[in-house]
Amino acid sequence: MKIRLTDLGLLAVITLVLTGCTGYSTMQSEDTKVRLQSDRELAEVALVGGRPGSAIDIYRQQLESRPDDVELLYLLGVAYNQTGEFDLALHFLDKAKAQDLAVKQHVRGDILRELGRAKLALGDIRQAQRDLESAADLLPASAETMNSLGVSYALQKEYGKAREAFIVALAIEPGSLEYRNNLALGWILADQPQKGIDVLYPSYLRGSSTSKTRQNLALAFAMKGDIEAAKMIAKQDLTKPELEKNIAYYQQWEQEK
């Protein structure tokens, strides 16, 4: 069959049109990806900046077109953990976990850690511990994960295990006062106040303590019977009525030993 020149011209035009459509579609797709990534970066800034509600608005909008996106489901769980809406955090994290077999190891670990933290907040301590232990196996170098695992042990009065986890967290992030405070509490709650003092006092002397670490340091001194030292440290953060209440508690505790 002979193909006329006019037919060839028509085919060329059609090919050009189709090629042009494909190129336009590709450009639209790339623009969408760029916009989605830009929005997600804005959400991350909001999350880190303590505005999880703004992050949630962005994540939920994106989830409408990407309902099975594991990262989005995980990030929503993180954001809801920050707002204290732990049931919603569990909802999205469970959905992420159900689809996480194909994702990387660190992502599975992050999902399990956030699940554990949500369950801790809801009082499901045993299940939280199991999730956090699994997360720690996947993320042994994550200070945040090891700290949360330590909290789960401490809440069950397994203070030895709690201290081990806090020590690992502190080794990874030695400058964290939160992890240092938790390690000290692991000693104080186990009725070994001097070891708690040993953990907290150097930071106090350097002037790098927080209200929380000072109050726990005061408690440790009171447990040793040094009420004056406890009073001197505690009064830095308390009103007069609060200080009097704490001193009464310290004295009562000492009498009941």
Automatic annotation (TrEMBL):
TPR repeats lie at residues 143-176. Pfam families: TPR_16. PROSITE patterns: PROKAR_LIPOPROTEIN, TPR. Signal peptide: none annotated. The keyword Cytoplasm does not apply. InterPro entries: TPR-like_helical_dom_sf (IPR011990), TPR_rpt (IPR019734). Keywords: TPR repeat. This is Uncharacterized protein. It comes from Photobacterium chitinilyticum.
